[in-house]
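Narrative summary of target 7.
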Amino acid sequence: MDDVRIVPWSTADLDLLRQLNAPEVRDHTGGPETDEQVVARNDRYARMSDTGPSRMYVVTLPDGSRVGSVGHWERDWHGVRVWEMGWAVLPAYQGRGLATAAVLTAVAAARARRTHRWVHAYPSVDNPASNAVCRKAGFTLLGPTEFEYPPGRIMHSNDWRLDLTGAD
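Modeled conformation, tokenized:
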């Protein structure tokens, strides 16, 4: 979808984050957070958009609708510093290819930064929609893995990887 845009996250996006905290959106990522956790996450997302290597974006439509989030942040994975990528789309906008379009746009932004070779995504093995986004966005499935998310909870995930140099 050529009409999907990503814009840097700001503290003004708290309402969107509260909407994304719905059970049907957070079902595969440990469930909804408390409002205190959502407020803290919103502050982190806004800081990520201002400084440092990580970035969070709001997924927007041409009419200005703010319909989701996408971003990448640094992590160590098997001894290598990589980007981790995550996304979410409001239920009313799911199934339209918006997540894939947003991921592709965020991948292009990560690629342009020339910081890390790899970007990984770790959707739950039980999340067919997010695994499909990875496949459609050109990630390579490395296989299942145990992944801690949220902190303190082990999630059975797939490890998807994309080479930002285009050599993969």
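The longest strand covers residues 66-77.
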